[in-house]
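Notes from the 1:1 (GR / supervisor)

We went over the backlog. Supervisor wanted to see one worked example end to end before approving the batch request, so GR pasted a single chain during the call. The sequence is below; no edits were made to it. Supervisor asked that the structure be written out right there so they could see what the output format looks like.
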Amino acid sequence: MKKIILIAKKEFLDILRDRRTLIRMILIPLLVFPLIMNIVTRVQSSQSQKQAEKELTIGYILNGQSVEGIDRMRQTPNYTFVEFADTNTLMASIISDSTDMGIYYTPTFNADYDSGLQAKYVLFYRAADGEDYDRFKEVLNREDSVLTAQRMQQIGKPYEYVEPTSRRMSNLSTLEEILGKYAGGILPYIFMAFLFMGCMLPAIDLFAGEKERGTIETLLTSPVNRSQILLGKFIVVVCFGLMSASVALAGLFISLNMLEADGELMAAINQILSPTLIGTLYVLLVPLAFFFAGVMIPISVYARSFKEAQSILTPLNIVMVLPAMAGFFPGVELDYTTAFIPIVNVVLACKAIIAGNADGVLLAITFVTLIVLAAISLLIALRQFGKETSILR
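Structure output shown during the call:
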């Protein structure tokens, strides 16, 4: 054990001397989330404000009908109503983007309304400008309500007469459950992506990099057997992977606290990111880090150079992280099937833990599955590192 720790200590010092590695593994994960979330929030807020203040031009053809409805809608701020002579001109103006939408009243609109029939009009719009339509739909709904209220008054009935039912929504889910269901997949996804990247650089440098520099032969001549050398390096790869994921989590936490979110939401997020949750995540992610290291090290041992190892492991990143997207699919939950699928089980287990409905048996299956995989990958790495043909390739 002393020799393993000695090897690990030596490798830690080597990697910590490399500033580029430290920047990639610590500085970038720590800064990238606050930066990205700040930019995205500002741009989104700015665009929403611009959209709300945008002046919409609405064309209309009265067709001999009353202008009363148009005059009511004209009172809404940020709308300009322009009368057109015919539908061809109106449609051409909408297609050329000179007018945003258009209303065509049928010739019997007023007569139908007065006689208690359904009065009809045509709304011309461009589905490609869905945001404009969503805004104007609220104005039209308001106008419909005015006409309905007038008709109910004429026949001496209350407005509720045409709305025989009233639905009152009563949400029984906690905010933690909602966050767990819809955002719970993001946390393990981020953790795994940075865990993989954090393991990759040391795994390449400590094996393929040493082969390229010609220092691996010197290390092999030391009075330490190959298993001890491998285990020492293995510890370093796992530690750097966990460190990178932890720094990314810290960056995410900082960026969330920088957002001007509502107090209840931030309180729920702070409650979710409790020491218990973080500790549980690590229980699942430590064996996963061993599994990642066990997959990367044999590849790095086999590769002739740093570049060759990087070219093989970079596409593998997609293969490893792709199953993590299962956390975003609706209806996919941790059960007796998904608990045996590596990576998928970690994401779904994390979602269940965040939502507060995790099943202890399924969590245990997930943990045991990861431990078995980590042990198998470690054995494969030991076997590959013991081959002269791989070391001296």
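Supervisor's comment: Residues 134 and 322 are 35 Å apart (CA to CA).
Batch request approved.
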